[in-house]
């Protein structure tokens, strides 16, 4: 068996009869960008978010932006929970456009 990530859309199970061995079990797949953005959202929206939390949230958004070769956001411009949330939602909208129903998010 090969090491590393495996790209698959449906689970392959040798015990499944018929359907060519493909299971009808739905897999939940998360993109790593979604993990970063979810953590950034949690940090910025938790009760009593500190400046350190907001800076870490901005840094996490910048990780996703760097992968897309976009410029960094600055903490000076995104220093309140609302500003971080607005930047985060915009980044999520750009990153996940038309993926798994993400186009429905506003």
UniProtKB/TrEMBL annotation:
Cited Pfam families: SusD_RagB
GO cellular component: cell outer membrane
Residue ranges that the Swiss-Prot or TrEMBL entry lists as coiled coil: none
Keywords, comma-separated and alphabetical: Cell outer membrane, Membrane, Signal
Domain of life, source organism: Bacteria
Cellular compartment(s): Cell outer membrane
Matching InterPro entries: SusD_RagB_dom, TPR-like_helical_dom_sf
Domain RagB/SusD: 13-103
Stated family: Belongs to the SusD family.
Identification of the protein by name: RagB/SusD domain-containing protein
Species for this entry: Bacteroides pyogenes JCM 6292
């Amino acid at each position: 068996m090969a090491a590393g990530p495996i790209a698959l859309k449906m689970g392959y199970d040798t015990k499944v009869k018929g359907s060519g061995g493909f299971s009808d079990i739905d897999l939940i797949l998360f993109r790593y960008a979604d993990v970063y953005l979810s953590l950034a959202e949690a940090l910025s929206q938790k009760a009593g978010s500190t400046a350190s939390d907001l800076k870490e949230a901005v840094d996490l958004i910048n990780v996703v932006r760097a992968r897309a070769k976009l410029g960094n956001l600055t903490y000076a411009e995104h220093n309140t929970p609302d500003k971080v949330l607005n930047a985060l939602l915009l980044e999520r909208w750009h990153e996940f456009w038309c993926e798994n129903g993400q186009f429905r998010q506003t």
